[in-house]
């Protein structure tokens, strides 16, 4: 690296003194040589930024409690002919002759009577929430790459998430609630994508993968703490949203100002001095020396960008046949993975177990999913890992159907009990771990399947497919209230389909990351021909 450093003679001052040499380095070179790949300052930076994932998880999964089917109902004294069997249906009863055991404010279903012919309205809020996330991802992605930056985009997203969450708690009817859930999904979508970029752009190459996975642990913390927040508000779903609205607002005003903007974004926006100030602050907090006074940063969008841009613009993923087929395959797999990953989380209310304990155990299963996935990626084929994790999710979901039959309609009694069906809960948790692993692996797989000039576009298309699958899942959850076994069976079928689709994707383990579509097509064709020649020689 030292031989590649550029020493450029600067201009002489007006007195004709000796010219000062300028040291030109890239951000990567400054981080590796002067700041440190991952020092104390970057660990604090990553920690503070990753805290926002907690609110992202809580906002996404709050509907598990706010939109849940109440556990039981009862007849009012003498009004339904002595029928006090809460395992029966309320659809044949006269309105006003029965009541929910937990009160009419325990969930939106209880408050707005979303049962019988109105049952599918209960799925609409969660579905439009994910549709809002789908649209918002593109908007926030553009804002963070252009004039707003990563840090301010996270701050804006947190503040708007807080406002829309509080507004949700004031909804007078189901359709207002649907609108604010859509708005909440739109506003929160900037948290995850910007936090991922803001953390990885502050560390050296060696640690980018680990730091990228770090955010998933904080998402898990948000998932795990949600039952602790929801339980005290179990008698009033509005209080849940009011409480959740305070956390992102406090974070954006008290902690986020301590975070530095991405030096890479500052550089490409022409704010070189600010970028150097951020790097110098990181270096000093890491115990390093102050950056050299003659240090300047090499802007990556210099002459090289001008030379490559025309070529990149000519290449289009959808007009390149092999890339388009591969993208469609990845998106179909992503639709299934998103459908199962988010659907299984929302479907916990259809387990024969206490809702709060079920959510907590599912959240805990995210931890081994991230750890195992990170460990296996080092030496396991991506295609094999994606398919096996999908099949684990599928088999577990299908096995849950047998336990659902055993539970029958008596689940309204057991739903509030800690002594529910442990066998079903354990199998469902294993299946969720498989779905979570497949979810994480598919993102990494997609990054490796496409070249640099279309990689971001490919990942955004995958995210849209995942969000589309997630938006359909709540409909099946509502159907599962009538037939839990059917919902688990459908999840199993979609998980199998995602695993099968991986057969048509090439293996990328130890493969290089290509720069253009043309280069990747030629190199993969050459590699395929070489493998066939070797196979023919071995067969002789």
UniProtKB/TrEMBL annotation:
Keywords of this entry: Membrane, Transmembrane, Transmembrane helix
Entry keyword Manganese: no
Pfam families linked: Sugar_tr
GO (cellular component) term, any one: membrane
Cell location: Membrane
Membrane topology: Multi-pass membrane protein
Ranges annotated as spanning the membrane: 120-141, 153-172, 211-231, 243-259, 323-343, 355-377, 384-405, 425-445, 457-479, 485-505
Native source organism of the sequence: Glycine max (Soybean)
Entry-linked InterPro entries: MFS_dom, MFS_sugar_transport-like, MFS_trans_sf
Gene Ontology molecular functions: transmembrane transporter activity
PROSITE patterns: MFS
UniProt keyword annotation of Membrane present: yes
Location of the Major facilitator superfamily (MFS) profile domain: 45-510
Record protein name field: Major facilitator superfamily (MFS) profile domain-containing protein
């Amino acid at each position: 690296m030292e031989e590649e450093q550029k020493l450029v003679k600067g201009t002489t001052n007006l007195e004709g003194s000796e010219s000062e040499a300028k040291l030109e380095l890239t951000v990567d070179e400054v981080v590796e040589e002067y700041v440190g790949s991952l020092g104390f300052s970057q660990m604090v930076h990553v920690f503070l930024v990753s805290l926002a994932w907690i609110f992202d998880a809580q906002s996404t999964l709050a509907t598990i409690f706010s939109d849940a089917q109440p556990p039981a109902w009862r007849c009012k004294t003498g009004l339904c002919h002595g029928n006090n069997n809460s395992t029966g249906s309320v659809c044949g009863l006269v309105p006003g002759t029965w009541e929910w055991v937990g009160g009419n404010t325990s969930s939106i279903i209880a408050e707005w009577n979303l049962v019988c012919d109105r049952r599918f309205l209960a799925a609409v809020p969660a579905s439009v929430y994910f549709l809002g996330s789908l649209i918002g991802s593109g908007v926030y992605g553009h804002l963070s790459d252009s004039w707003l930056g990563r840090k301010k985009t996270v701050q804006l997203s947190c503040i708007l998430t807080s406002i829309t969450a509080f507004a949700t708690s004031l909804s007078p009817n189901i359709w207002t609630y649907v609108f604010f859930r859509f708005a909440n999904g739109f506003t929160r979508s900037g948290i995850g994508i910007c936090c991922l970029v803001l953390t990885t752009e502050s560390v050296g190459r060696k640690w980018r993968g680990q730091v990228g996975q770090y955010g998933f642990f904080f998402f898990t913390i948000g998932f795990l703490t949600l039952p602790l927040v929801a339980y005290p508000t179990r008698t009033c779903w509005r209080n849940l949203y009011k409480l959740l609205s305070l956390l992102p607002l406090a974070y954006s005003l008290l902690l986020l100002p301590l975070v530095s903007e991405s030096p890479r974004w500052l550089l490409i926006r022409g704010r070189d001095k600010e970028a150097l100030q951020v790097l110098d602050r990181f270096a000093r907090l890491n115990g390093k020396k102050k950056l050299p006074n003659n240090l300047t940063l090499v802007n990556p969008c210099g002459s090289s960008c001008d030379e490559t841009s025309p070529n990149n613009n000519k290449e289009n993923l959808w007009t390149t046949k092999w890339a388009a087929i591969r993208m469609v395959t990845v998106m179909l797999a992503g639709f299934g993975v998103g459908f199962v990953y988010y659907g299984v989380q929302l479907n916990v209310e259809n387990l024969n177990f206490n809702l709060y304990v079920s959510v907590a155990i599912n959240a805990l299963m995210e931890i081994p999913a991230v750890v195992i996935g990170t460990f296996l990626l080092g030496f396991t084929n991506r295609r094999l890992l994606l398919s096996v994790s999908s099949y684990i999710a599928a088999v577990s979901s299908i096995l849950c159907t047998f336990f659902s039959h055993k539970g029958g309609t008596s689940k309204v009694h057991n739903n509030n009990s800690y002594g529910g069906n442990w066998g079903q809960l354990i199998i469902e948790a294993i299946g969720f771990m498989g779905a979570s692993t497949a979810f994480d692996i598919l993102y990494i797989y997609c990054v490796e399947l496409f070249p640099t000039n279309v990689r971001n576009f490919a990942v955004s298309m995958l995210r849209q497919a995942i969000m589309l699958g997630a938006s359909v899942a709540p409909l099946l959850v509502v159907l599962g209230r009538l037939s839990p076994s059917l919902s688990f069976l459908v999840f199993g079928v979609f998980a199998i389909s995602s695993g099968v689709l991986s057969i048509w994707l090439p293996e990328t383990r130890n493969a290089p990351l290509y720069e253009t579509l043309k280069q990747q097509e030629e190199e993969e064709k050459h590699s395929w021909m070489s493998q066939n020649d070797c196979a023919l020689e071995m067969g002789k």
